[in-house]
Structures are given as C-alpha cells and as structure tokens.
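EI: anyone free to look at a 359-residue chain?
SC: sure, send it
EI:
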Amino acid sequence: MATGTRAGTKVRVGVIGAGAWAVSSHLPTLRKRADDVEFTAVCRHGTEALERIRAEYGFEVASEDYRAVLAAEPDVVVVSSPSGFHHEHAKAALEAGAHVMCEKPVTIDPADAWDLVETARRVDRELFISFGWNYLPMLREAKRLMEEIGIGRLEHMTVHMASVTRELLADQGGDAHAAGDAVPDPATWTDASKSGGGYGQAQLSHALGMALWLTGARAESAFALMSAPMGAKVELHDAITMSYDGGAIGVLSGASCHREFDRNKHQLEMRAVGSEGQFHIDLAADVLWIYRPDEVDLKVDLPPDAGLYHDEGPIHALVDAGLGRPVDNQSPGELGARTVEALDLAYRSAASGAREYRS
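SC: here you go
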C-alpha cells in the first residue's frame, strides 16, 4: 500500500483515464514537475493510444484495467475517467493509500460524492477536485475578500456561464483545435449513463465549484428547465432557480454558445447580494468587486486575462501532497459534493417538472 513519498524519492504517479483532457492538460502539467514525479502507471481504453502515451511519458505500467494502476502502488492518482466511474476509481485509489485528484463532477450521485469525502477523511488522504479556476490568483484574492470583508448572510446569487460546447454536446464534432489523443470521445459527453447529463455536468459543475467555494452556500432545492436543440441527446442549455440553506435564493444558468473565443476565456460571472454588502466577479471581463455600505467599495486592479482558465493548480497541489508538503486545498472533496448536490437537484427537477429538494 502506498503511504506517500519517502524522503529523497519522487512521487509515484498513477493516471486512471488518460482521455482527451488528461492528455491535453493533466499529463503536460505533471511533466512540468519532472524533478518531483515518476510516471508510474496509466490506464485508458484503446491499446494504440495507451502505447503512445506510455512511450511519450515513460510510464512503467500501461493497462486498460485501472486495477493495474493501483497494483503499481502510486503515491498520487489522477482520476480522469468518465464521471460515471469516478466513485469506483477514486474510492479504490484512496483506499490504496494514494492522494487523489478527481475530475469534475466528482460523481453523479451525491451519496457517492459524500462517500468519497468520508473515505478520504478515514484514510487520511487528500482529495482534490479539478476546479482549476479556484487556484488562479484572481480567485484566491476573491476568496480572501469574501472571508476577510464578506457580504454578510447570503440573500441572492446569480451565476451565469456560457462556453463553446454546442457541437461537442450535440455530437456534431468536438474541439476544432484538438488533435490526436486530445480529441474527446463523444460518448463521454453525450451518453448520460457516463456523463450524468449535458451542459450542467460538463460546465456548470465549474461554475458551481467557483460560486459555492466563494460563498460557502449549499443548495437546498431547485426548479430547472433544460433544452436540447440540434437533436442533442443531452441538454445544451440550463435555466435553474435555486434555494440555499439559510434562506438565500438565486439563479443558475448555462448556455452552449457559438465560437466567439479562440481560447479558454469562458463567460463566467457571479453576482451575490448579502445582508451587509454585495460581490461581483466576471472572469471574461476580469472584474472583481466587493461593496459594503459601511465605506467598502473595492474594485481590484487585475492584469489582463486574469480569468483565463487553466487546470494546473489541482495537479500541482496533488504532487505537493504526495511530497508531504502542506497544501492549500482550494477544491476539496466537500466542495465537489456540494456541487453534485446542486446538479442532482437540477436534473431531478428537469425530469419531474417540479421543484426538487435535497434529501
């Protein structure tokens, strides 16, 4: 059983699910930590792609069976398999003694998400969720402002996200800039048994990972409308009214937009009104503002592209955990579980046509 890195040795890395995003983001980020990591074991379907990845990164073990990854006794594991398999894969990795970075949404079922939180606590391992925005300096500053200044008790929150996912979710072609092993498997996105749904799971999981992190909110109920144009099997657009513990209400919306950006500068905005002030963050416009009537009116001066997305933060934190260093987990399993709760409410409501409540 892996117990973490021994003094003077490198972190043994296992990867379960070396699909499009792992190939384009997680593995290159790990390679930036070449002095700290050993590429120990990798798993994915497709023997040709598996061999290419093994050869490129020098993995000792390459298999289509995730259990071979755990048998190699990694210190840390990246779980980047389809969402429907996250619970099985992440729990097995945690119980094998590894720190885990799991892709979002961490699970489809809230009970499975909370089970992973409890498992990580029980085995004393770190569980990180792939909410890359939370590690950017802009978001770290936003979190500091909400903790040190704050807006009082949350009363209302609006969250909107739009990103270029129309063709991907409608199974009409994926990322036009992706190539080779970085081309997404359409079923990962459009087969609800694997993904849990469409835009909500694929993208609003990110938005919730930001909004619930900054506010500490927990969804209580939801009424959702979802739209699947273009003959899509899963929804491309979401319009959701939410209530939260403590009496706050709000709106959560998501849209699969047209190709207006040539990079990862998604439209993602949150506005929150509390009993003592209000807060605004806009990642596309590089806006961060907090206001209180008691003479706090702070608009943070941000550099251009402060909100530009990348997913390196959770991977660096995972490696640091494997090295035994103190880590500031900006995307803990508990946050992942709260995002899954909110998404579960929305999908249940869209299916039933009624407001659904957290059980």
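EI: The mean pLDDT is 93.
SC: 👍
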